[in-house]
Write a structure and sequence with these properties.
Structural class: mainly alpha
CATH topology: Growth Hormone, Chain: A
Radius of gyration: 23 Å
CATH superfamily: MFS general substrate transporter like domains
Strand order of the largest sheet: 1-2
Number of domains: 1
Helix content: over 70%
Amino acid sequence: MFDKHPKGLIAAALANLGERFGFYTMMAILVLFLQAKFGMNGKEAGFIYSTFYFSIYILALVGGIIADKTRNYKGTIFTGIVLMAVGYLLLAIPSKTPVDNQTFYLVITCASLFVIAFGNGLFKGNLQALVGQMYDNPKYASMRDSGFSLFYMFINIGAIFAPFAAVGVRNWWLSTFGYNYDADLPALCHGHLAGTLSPEATETYHTLVEKASNAPVQDYTAFASDYLNVFTTGFHYAFGVAIIAMVISLTIYLLNKRNFPDPSKKAVASSASSATVEMSIQEVKQRMYALFAVFGVVIFFWFSFHQNGLTLTYFAKEYTDLNLFGMPISAELFQSLNPFFVVFLTPVIMAIFASQRRRGKEPSTPKKIAIGMGIAALAFIVMAVGSYFANLPLHKDIIAVGTSPVKVTPFLLMLTYLILTVAELYISPLGISFVSKVAPPKYQGIMQGGWLGATALGNQLLVIGAILYESIPIWMTWTVFVVACTISMFTMIFMLKWLERVAK
């Protein structure tokens, strides 16, 4: 599988694997942690989630600038790993719930998230730039798309197990105190303590308390406080798992650091070589315009795709039957589906591309991205149709009674994640490959940061999904994403010939 690829690819993928394990441990539980810890509604948690996700990717642009200016890619990546570990450590320190001083602890939480985001910004785009530079060697140039697909597959192996680790730690901590997991209970506990539950929701709360406690409950107020404290402490310890993953990632990176290309040495060699052909200003402009055009389009894909950690997670918690073949499951575990499908489907997609390449019919990278947009629209069509025919109640109605009277099969989300993953494999690794191929050599880091910056803008728009989720029928929320992905697809098709010409 790796025979025709540079040796540094495996090391880079393994270093990123550890980082992705830590990152997805956190992302699997972040919005649910914010709701359980601070009693936030979906819009409030969604705003923090979208801003954090925005910060992760926009700071990658800053990380690219730092690396390009200093020409110290490897040192920048190292600093990023250390900062992320520090951020996870701050989140892992438990504090009492319900929170006595909500403003103080919310500031601490947001500061921790910023440290993680900044570290990720120094790490992510610059490691991708190093991978891209491995394929600047003519020996490997034809394998660039395949190389980034393999890189993408291996880093997702860590993300598969991350939600299981987070859920395992949280549920283990609950069981230690004689409690069982229930997705609806944290919100009901906060409502009970605040005195905002309706009579119907109060009845639901009492029913769920009896199921969640292994001992008879005499004081429902004391239960609410203790359950929230144990529940969120388990989440704090789950963040600690991410620290272990970061240490592993750091170790792999340091052991293999010498195998990665050095952009600063390459730049010196290029400037000293009389055979080097400088790009004209016009060519540089055309390449930059093409990249910015693609960046603008993919904003809408990420606005839709990254709902997996927000509205799709809310949907799993509130509208999905959390039983699979008679076994209880946690809402967070749906987060493992995307990376699992990435690993499972990457060889399939690569085989399809290889077959097309042999027959001389492989789509160009821009055309693959356009196809991916259409596939993403199909995924949300599945969600819209499934939600519409299930006749799911409005979000405000399930808040009134404490839980949704209608629950859909978990296979609806499973199918959606499967289709979304196919779309992702047509867009994300190939988009990174496109950037590394088209970006002028001296702007490699900043253009990889630009790709992540476009992702950041899409992520900041995520909060719109949370607002719609709580305001309109759920099937209409998914329809908004169908429209966004469809517009993106047709825009890419409109620009296709120009993008293909620039990428030659």
